[in-house]
């Protein structure tokens, strides 16, 4: 596939599957051998993972902020917004609105998404759901962060 076709497929995946809730579209967009962060999922495993997100955040929407592509890879920087109305990561519904970001690096093969490496701001999301704060970390005996932390020492 050409780079333009790859980026179109990735944008279509997020728009149709997440924003329009067309979960049946996964079968045509995700390879049967699909792997997510090292976990073999295939279309059915990916559908289940998305259903869990949609159950926890029924009004979730994702915006694609940037797309960069080269060869068979597409990187999509995303912003997710939704209201926590179902259990998520063991957290009972809070009714809180949340906004979090993520970056997905996707490998495409034969017109389908074959592999994904996803990084999301889980800590920021947990904070918005009231499950983690800097104060809690300090109260639990964790060391205080340094004002400056050197990147390397000579």
N- and C-termini, Cα separation:
47 Å
Quaternary state reads: single chain
Low-confidence stretches: 143-154
Q: How would you classify the helix and strand content by structural class?
A: alpha+beta
| Widest beta sheet: strand line-up | 2-1-6-5-4-3
| Helix percent band | 25-40%
Proportion of residues in β-strands: 25-35%
Count of the separate structural domains: 1
Task: Indicate the CATH class.
Answer: Alpha Beta
CATH architecture: Roll
Short description:
With 154 residues, the protein is an alpha+beta fold. It has helices spanning 3-19, 26-29, 42-56, 122-128, 134-139; strands at 30-36, 39-40, 61-70, 73-83, 97-109, 112-120.
Question: What key attributes describe this structure?
Answer:
Nuclear Transport Factor 2, Chain: A; 154 residues; single chain; disordered C terminus; 6-stranded mixed β-sheet; alpha+beta
Question: Layout of SSEs?
Answer:
Blueprint (H helix, E strand, L loop, with lengths): L2 H17 L6 H4 E7 L2 E2 L1 H15 L4 E10 L2 E11 L13 E13 L2 E9 L1 H7 L5 H6 L15
Descriptive notes:
By secondary structure, the chain is α+β, with helices and mostly antiparallel strands. The chain has one domain (3-139): Nuclear Transport Factor 2, Chain: A. Helices cover 32% and strands 34% of the residues. It contains 5 helices and 6 strands. A 6-stranded mixed beta sheet has the order 2-1-6-5-4-3. A hairpin with a 2-residue loop joins β1 (30-36) and β2. The chain is globular, with a radius of gyration of 18 Å. The termini are far apart. The model is unreliable at 143-154 (pLDDT under 50).
């Amino acid at each position: 596939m050409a780079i333009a076709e790859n980026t179109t497929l990735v944008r279509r995946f997020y728009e149709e599957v997440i924003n329009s809730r067309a979960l049946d579209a996964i079968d045509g967009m995700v390879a049967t051998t699909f792997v997510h962060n090292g976990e073999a999922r295939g279309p059915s495993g990916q559908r289940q993972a998305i259903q869990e997100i949609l159950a926890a955040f029924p009004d979730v929407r994702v915006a694609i902020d940037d797309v960069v592509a080269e060869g068979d890879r597409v990187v999509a920087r995303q912003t997710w917004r939704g209201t926590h109305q179902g259990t998520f990561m063991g957290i009972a519904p809070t009714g809180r609105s949340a906004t979090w970001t993520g970056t997905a690096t996707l490998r495409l093969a034969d017109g389908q998404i074959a592999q994904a490496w996803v990084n999301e701001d889980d800590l920021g999301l947990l904070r918005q759901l009231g499950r983690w704060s800097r104060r809690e970390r300090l109260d639990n005996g964790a060391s205080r962060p340094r004002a400056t932390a050197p990147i390397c020492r000579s």
